[in-house]
SLC12A transporter C-terminal domain-containing protein
Amino acid sequence: MSGKCPGPAVDSVREKNEKNLKASSVSDLTTGTPLTQTISGMPDPMDINAKLLNDQRSLKRSHNDPALLYRGPGGAELPKDVLDELSQFTSKKKTGIIDVYWLYDDGGLTLLLPYIISTRRNWSSCKLRVFALANRKTELEFEQRNMASLLAKFRIDYSDLKLLPDVTKKPEANTVAYFKNLIKDFNGDEPGQISEAELLAVQDKTNRHLNLRDYALEHSSKSDLVVMTLPMPRKGVVSAQLYLAWLETLSQGLPPFLFVRGNQTSVLTFYS
């Protein structure tokens, strides 16, 4: 028996056999898959994953479709004015008005926020109007000069300044009727209701808010944004129902409305 090592011819045959074995294994596996599906009765997991992926892609495409985004429940088309309201804070305004009702000294936050908004790109073309309360009707012009001087020290760039007199006067009859209709379902002496005694105790406050509503409707009905100092109720004196009725009275029927209240910490710096 010869003791020679296998030559190149033997190695070539061995490599060919290994390749044939691999090809046979792959071929058997591939051709056997449908048979396995038929026997087991179960779908191929790879097909399930592919179908789920396609469904997710289709769902994503439908969610990004503007025609489907701007529809109400049941697929109903939304009115144009509703669509305009949805996009008013994301599109640049060519012209516009931001009204600020700075009613109390809360540290200046009520004034600072709308001013910052007016400096942003989308609102940079909007005018900033400031409304404040007049303490004395007889000194209206003097108080207006003082307020203008204060705004200049704060470096607030505004287009118009107006003081509101007589906010504690008797409101207009139609405004009173509106407020009574607003709270009629909450009147009573039970807990969680607005009693007659409570209404009498805060009548001046209610008149103040009703008059402010009239001023806001007169001056700000066509504005793009209204910012007002948030009134604070006295604990144990004003119920939650009455307080929310005040807020509804001040803001109902007006453009987008933002109530702001600082914590008495000054947020404005001024030239001395």
